[in-house]
Amino acid sequence: MQYDEIMQATMLLCCHFNKNEVKNFKPLSGLEYSRLAQWLYQNKWSPADLLSQTDEILTEWDDPKGKITVERIKQLLGRGVSMSFALEKWTKQGIWVISRVSEFYPKAIKKHLGEQRPPILFGLGNQQLLNQTSLGFVGSRSITENDEIFASAKAKKAVEEGYTIISGGAKGVDQAAMRAALEHGGQSIGILADGIYANETRRIFLNYLRQGTLVLISPFFPEAGFSVGSAMARNKFIYTMSEAVIVVKSDKDKGGTWTGAKENLNKKWVPLLVRDIAEEGNQALIQMGGIGFEDEIVPYVELLSTQPLVDQIVERTSSEDTSQPQGNLLSVTLDMFEQLAIAPNQQSEVHFDLKNNDDEANENSVEDTSETSSELDVNPLQIELITESDKQADKNTEEMRLVQIQQKYGEIFELFVKTLISLSKDKTSFFILDDIKNQFPELQDTQIKKWLKELETEGCLRKEGRKARYTFV
User: Fold this and answer.
1) What integer is the mean pLDDT of 23-43?
2) What integer is the mean pLDDT of 304-331?
3) Does residue 404 sit in helix, strand or coil?
4) In whole angstroms, what is the distance from residue 406 CA to residue 385 CA?
5) What's the pLDDT score for residue 352?
6) C-alpha closest to that of 431 among 448, 411, 406
7) What is the distance between the alpha carbons of residues 198 and 226, in angstroms, rounded to a whole number?
8) What pLDDT does residue 453 have?
């Protein structure tokens, strides 16, 4: 999977790449990234320019709020090794990444959230579903059989009317609506409240991911666990990506369903359809402006078109230019600028294969590189560890050899070797295991030791002393 330079810069500035990262400087939030990106645009730079002209650009940067310091930006941009390892790991699991300038990025999120939209989304499955006409389903995790029957019936009816079903992928109402839609031949979008790498929903619905009728997305670090804060933050994406949202069951004054529904009513994003039952939370939401409805079979279009709340929303949105939401003209222009700044030969192509990912015994395993090749005339491990006399070799031949290394061992191993070379220059004569672990927090000790042993066996490294100091031969 190849990503253009704008995408790389955006990920470096806005993403976590491992759980052991230094916490002194957090990645930029959506608003912070917008502030920096707008300044770059106004000064005729793009985020990609930060990769090659860091010092030149940042000498002129001064954050008016004092939070995006030059030191913070430099530390974030300096995580190229961490990004490469993380992307390699995630890609093996079929995870893709899109930025807000991608053609697949949900247009509805741009429209409703403006500069607060996430700069990056992680996903699994069919990206083309992200801009379908959709209905959202929310509700408690703890539901009765009657609640599940209601959610399933309404989801199937939505599918028959041409809607894609959006929900949060959690147990209870979320999974009931998504499963009913998919089993009924429909399509679904799951917006997760935790990292997509280890989320249980991907395993439950794996067949539908393979079939292309489901997509799972998350704005959070792919290896992050569940948190209440993330669940609350996730709610706004379910609402803003839907034409309307159905509340099947809600507690009052507590829980994610209540908080999300209340926020939607306050922000007036989309109509809120609330199941009219005796549940205290449901009745409170109806009194606050939700549209009460029961088990009657009425087309959603007809149900929505007759409600005062919908009329208010339609009147509000029709008075605006929806292609350029009020207050967000600069963000729209910025998105266009970033998209145009990507050279034609840099456009990213996304391919994923979920056929065998669920069968891996160890998701953290790295490709075994111990097998030697009889097809190469030179030892590929020695090429990167060249001596001073080797540096005068023919450039074209050297480039060909580097390609051979990449084909045999992969880009990650090549990056590992290059980083060790850089580390040895810093240490002038030797380095120890702790030095390497600090450079590669994503890798387990066993994997680092295996690669070091391989380099040692091939005669590239020499191990000395009881503390295992390594020296290039």
Assistant:
1) 90
2) 44
3) helix
4) 15
5) 38
6) 448
7) 10
8) 79
pLDDT of residue 369: 36
Residue 398 burial (CB < 10 Å; 0-12/13-18/19+)?
middle
**Is the separation of the CB atoms in 234 and 196 below 8 Å?**
no
280 Cβ contact list (under 8 Å, min separation 6): 251, 252
Indicate the CATH number for domain 121-319. Answer: 3.40.50.450
CB distance 199 to 224 below 8 Å: no
The torsion angles phi and psi of 94, rounded to 5 degrees, stand at 80, 10
Greatest CA span in the chain, whole angstroms?
84
* Distance from the Cα of residue 261 to its chain's centroid: 25
Q: Which ranges in the chain are annotated with CATH 3.40.50.450?
A: 121-319
How far is 199 from 358, CA to CA, in rounded Å?
12
* 57 token code pair: 């650009």
The reported pTM is 0.71
Contact between residue 188 and residue 264 where contact means Cβ atoms under 8 Å apart: no
SS3 137: strand
CB 131 within 8 A of CB 98: no
Residue 43's alpha-carbon distances to 36, 39, 58, 206, in angstroms, are: 11, 6, 12, 46
Decide if pLDDT at 279 tops 70.
yes
Segment 238-266 shows an average pLDDT of 95
Is residue 138 over pLDDT 70? Answer: yes
Q: Summarize pLDDT for 404-444 with one digit per residue, the tens.
A: 555 555 566 667 777 777 766 655 567 777 777 777 666 66
Residues 6+ apart with CB under 8 A from 172: 139, 140, 141, 142, 143, 147
What pLDDT does residue 386 have? 37
